Automatic annotation (TrEMBL):
Keywords: Repeat, Repressor, Transcription, Transcription regulation, WD repeat. Residues 78-94 have a biased composition (Polar residues). It comes from the Eukaryota. Residues 14-23, 31-44, 64-77 have a biased composition (Low complexity). This is WD40 repeat-like protein. The lineage of its organism: Eukaryota, Fungi, Dikarya, Ascomycota, Pezizomycotina. It comes from Letharia columbiana.
Length: 463
């Protein structure tokens, strides 16, 4: 949704057993560390790779995130508590996307734009940058253009990106710090880091979100703490404690008073900034990977490792929608986002799809077969990514659905037809987070290649 209110930006989780069999060695098994590099769940202390056309070689960097234990073992070999989701190591590295030779006929491609060879495309069907390219769907009329605005270098995986409501700033979350950049210049203006935290090991910031007035930035991290920073003074205004596992997603309500959080401890919590306390604790059966608050501030949606999307009324904690079953995702849900109308919801999953849902107009779910509450219906499923969908969002006008994937691509989708307009390849590792500017015309991406990027999009005016 727009931070656009309600865009969730989680990290990565290990794939299911079926996916492991399909994709070869399990991605959650870290590659053997090279001599001199630190081994561990996040493979830290990487030297900067040599730059070639603006990019280095593919770094085997961990993209942190929630996950289910394998054989009841934790990331460092310790036994985990049974029946409890635990963080696992995850490489985040994707193999180079193969380009078939010869490429398939356009009419056979559908939304699988990654199957097309840019070298075989006509000039009006592609856009090339120095170290990126975009392919436009040859089967639909091209109406968009895209271009790179700023390249924001980091020293670790960029787990999340988020714009301020006025669109002047973009925040990123990475290892041990959140950083704020001025959108007009691309310059870093603030770095927020808690110096009281133990300096040993990694501490990834999994989620960031600005308060509506732009004065504060909330950060959620692996240490189970939510910190609300006063941006101007670079000091912590409030710390919320209570989660029992890593925090993967945050969202500020439009009233500026409430913050929603999702954690691997199976809970969605709502925090009250005015009274500095927890105001709501919603427990489910599995780890929560993503949360989003509706534009009105009345509802909170969450995606989970159990493949479901749930929506609650924040005012009373009542579950008003559970979106799963036959129409639902077939694997963990990684990202949810509200549309600007507050009744449209999109979700992205490890099943490689995005789904659009229409919530019931009266927001009252009914009892369905099996006793499940259903307060919405599936509008359509978007298929075209070659790997896990890690982040989804809608532009502030609701005209486009954005998605970022482990296939390193960003796609723009037409929500009315389900067709993809374009596929952007602008990173050398998983695109973990996508975020449109609330003011339109810009979007940001965060990746396992240690870069965040700001892009512009707009009407296509011909070559």
């Amino acid at each position: 949704m727009a931070n656009p209110p309600g865009q969730g930006n989680p990290g990565l989780v290990p794939p299911s057993q079926d996916q492991q069999q399909q994709q070869g060695p399990p991605p959650h098994q870290m590659p053997q560390p090279q001599q001199g590099l630190q081994s561990g769940p996040y493979q830290g202390n990487y030297p900067q790779p040599p730059v070639v056309n603006g990019y280095g070689s593919q770094a085997q960097i961990a993209s942190p995130g929630p996950g289910k234990p394998r054989n009841n073992r934790g990331p460092l070999g310790h036994t985990n508590t049974p029946q409890q989701s635990q963080p696992m190591s995850y490489s985040g590295a994707s193999p180079q996307m193969g380009r078939p030779s010869p490429p398939p006929p356009f009419h056979n491609v559908g939304n699988m734009l990654a199957d097309l060879d840019p070298d075989q495309m006509r000039p009006e069907q592609k856009r090339d940058g120095n170290d990126w390219f975009a392919i436009f769907n040859p089967n639909v009329r091209r109406v968009l253009d895209v271009d790179l605005v700023h390249n924001l270098l980091h020293e670790s995986v960029v787990c999340c990106v988020r714009f301020s409501r006025d669109g002047r700033y973009v925040a990123t979350g990475c290892n041990r710090s959140a950083q704020i950049f001025e959108v007009s210049t691309g310059n870093q203006v603030t770095k927020l880091q808690d110096d009281s935290v133990d300096k040993d090991g990694d501490l990834y910031i999994r989620s960031v979100c600005f308060s509506p007035d732009g004065l504060y930035l909330a950060t959620g991290a692996e240490d189970k703490q939510i910190r609300v920073w006063d941006i101007q003074s670079r000091t912590i205004k409030t710390t919320f404690a209570g989660h029992e596992q890593d925090i993967y997603s945050l969202d500020f309500a439009s009233n500026g008073r409430h913050i929603a959080s999702g954690s691997g401890d199976h809970s969605v919590r709502v925090w009250d900034m005015e009274y500095n306390r927890e105001s709501l604790n919603l427990m489910i059966e599995d780890g929560v990977t993503t949360v989003a608050i509706s534009p009105s501030g009345d509802y909170v949606a969450a995606g989970s490792l159990d493949k479901s999307v749930r929506v609650w009324d924040v005012r009373n904690g009542h579950l008003i929608a559970r979106l799963d079953g036959m129409d639902g995702h077939k694997d963990s849900v990684y990202s949810v986002a509200f549309g600007p109308d507050g009744e449209t919801l999109v979700s992205g999953s490890l099943d490689k799809t995005i789904k659009m849902w229409q919530l019931s107009p009266d927001n009252r779910g009914g009892m369905m077969g099996g006793g499940m509450i259903r307060g919405g219906r599936l509008v359509r499923t978007f298929e075209g990514h070659k790997d896990f969908v890690l982040s989804v969002a809608l532009t502030p006008d609701g005209e486009w659905v954005l998605s970022g994937s482990k296939d390193r691509g960003v796609q723009f989708w037409n929500p009315r037809t389900g067709d993809t307009q374009l596929m952007l390849q602008g990173h050398k590792n998983s695109v973990i987070s996508v975020a449109p500017s609330p003011q339109g015309e810009l979007f940001a991406t965060g990746s396992g290649d240690m870069r965040a990027r700001i892009w512009k999009y707009g009407a296509y005016r011909g070559t």
